[in-house]
Amino acid sequence: MPGIWIYSEDSAVARQLLTAGLELKTSMNQAVGVLTPNSEDAQSFVAAGADKVYVVRGSNPWPESYAGAVADILGREEAAVVLAGGTLRGKDLAAKVAAAMQAGLVTDAATITYANGNIETSRLIYGGLAVCTEAVALPAFVTIPPRTFAEAPAQGNGAGEVVTVEAANEDERISVTNVCPIVRQGTDIAGASRVVCVGRGLNKQEDLSLAAALAAAVGAEIGCTRGISEDYHWLPNDRYIGISGQKVKPELYIGMGISGQVQHVVGVRDAKVIVAIDTNEKSLLFEAADYGIVGDLYEVVPLLTKALQK
């Protein structure tokens, strides 16, 4: 089935990619298919508009071990475009499959369109200071970060086909002897709908209680800049937002005492509403903010928290 194909080991991400795939379907006039290792979610892809779903099933549980099977299926189907989830494992698999199919690969695309017989993408470079636009000849592979698109909604009773393929994905050269999961505290901040973020404007660790009270008043998770987590160790590293940390896309982001360097702003620029609180009216965060309060956070935040609690 020549057309647009989607792969992610994460079914939520695959449904997000399906939104982009269905947009390409309109412009390319080609079918949309999904490859997934998650058999329990196959019908949800069909309901969301997939014309065909391959359930790739193997004895090796690691998603990256499916690269050979995925390449075989895409080769038989003569895929024109492949959208892969921009997770660590998704990028690993996309690179292997693209190399096997001798196809061009673009990573971390923020937009994707079909024009002049090519796939055109845009992505941020230089820490968000510039946008790179690229055109890739077909067949083209593109990785897209999670939450770039909303999940494709169910459209009723889809008529797509579900096919199960057994994959020989064992590799005796590699054996996993132990797995130590990362212990996270609280909700995954990357998926939070509201975030209160603290920076070096906070004088001491005990003052995090100001952020905690404000976060409780608006139902938010607490994030921080790199200095707060890596230099001061006041919050875990998984709370650090920025170019090499978490990328968030909340409905509301409130930054307290943050200078707004580009390395941090690139991690919050997709927030729907940005609020900045800082004494320095030249703080760069004000340039990215929808609302700004110039003032001492030790005076402003308690007043704001009290008002929100009413």
UniProtKB/TrEMBL annotation:
Cofactor binding, per record: Binds 1 FAD per dimer.
Required co-factors: FAD
Binding site for FAD: R200, T225, R226, G257, I258, S259, G260, Q261, V262, Q263, H264
Matching InterPro entries: DHS-like_NAD/FAD-binding_dom, ETF_a/b_N, ETF_a/FixB, ETF_asu_C, Rossmann-like_a/b/a_fold
GO biological process, alphabetically ordered: fatty acid beta-oxidation using acyl-CoA dehydrogenase
Keyword Transcription: no
Domain Electron transfer flavoprotein alpha/beta-subunit N-terminal: from-to ranges: 4-176
Keywords of the record: FAD, Flavoprotein, Transport
UniProt keyword Flavoprotein, yes or no: yes
Superkingdom of origin: Bacteria
Molecular function per GO: electron transfer activity; flavin adenine dinucleotide binding
SUPFAM superfamilies: Adenine nucleotide alpha hydrolases-like, DHS-like NAD/FAD-binding domain
Family affiliation: Belongs to the ETF alpha-subunit/FixB family.
Cross-referenced PANTHER family: ELECTRON TRANSFER FLAVOPROTEIN ALPHA, ELECTRON TRANSFER FLAVOPROTEIN SUBUNIT ALPHA, MITOCHONDRIAL
Name of the protein described by the UniProt record: Protein FixB
